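User: Okay, second chain of the day. Same drill as before: sequence in, structure tokens out.
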Amino acid sequence: MKEAKNGKTQIITGPSQRELKEHGSYQFPFLVSYERLSGYESGSFLWHWHREIELTLITKGNMIYQINDRQFCMKEKDALFGNSSTLHSAHMADGKDCAYISVTFAPRLLYGYEGSLIQNKYTEPFLRPSTLAAVHFDGSQSWHNDFVEGLRQIIKEDEEKQPFYEVRIQELLLHLWLILLKHGLSEGTDGEEKGATHSLAAKHSMDEKNYERIRQMLSYIQENYAQKLELEEISHHVHICKSECCRIFKSYMKESLFDYLLKYRIEQSLPDVLAEKDTLTEIALRVGFTDSNYYSKVFRRIKGCSPREYRRRYHER
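Assistant: Same drill. Structure tokens below.
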């Protein structure tokens, strides 16, 4: 993340929307972060992904969290498992702030070394997002409490940093992974029937291909949002027709490609809106809109107020 001119943070991603933040060190790829949605531009973080597994614990408030094509309404004391390489984003629920703790770690903390039995048998088959994308721990199952308690212990170990705490954290991560293997697979795959092995494998393969296409679409928008952007350009970039491009994006991301583009442009304009150095026309043109009237109309639809009102509310906080 980086700090913007207005003091807010932004998730920094590479060309494929992969987050560039370091999650721990090579020697111990593990990180605990204490976050608030209000710390991000507009109270949300945009789509991104990373190789690390992410565990989220809500400590205050609510949030709407989306992982791949699934959306979760999370409340205080809920936890969420997000698998390696899943696309994810989150925003405030009802415009109210949410505090949460994020635990990220590299999968190799679970299996030790490449080619190990633990990797090949118990880890790698379940790291594919299409197999196990996310699990919401909301207390609806008794085993949810065991998982959340284990997550709290991990956070405590990291905070206190007593002797051997790294060993204890690794032990607890393996404990949580075992809970997921025993109970979480049916939830993470929406209860798909075990008998349909061939069709499931085909579906998972197609899902992975489509998510890669979506990453490429997001990357293309990130690099070209400030210019006039046509659907034909985006579809050509991912080597599919325009209608298939729209269908895939809407099916997996739960919003149209055009709506996402508009939302992304508005998000990119926020630092300049708050800085008060440029006119609305200059800001609108800089993020890809053709005129300030249309920019203001879209801004109001997405943010619920005009750019000037948004600026006023921010400075009154």
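The chain has three domains: 2-188, 197-254, 259-316.

User: Thanks, on to the next one.
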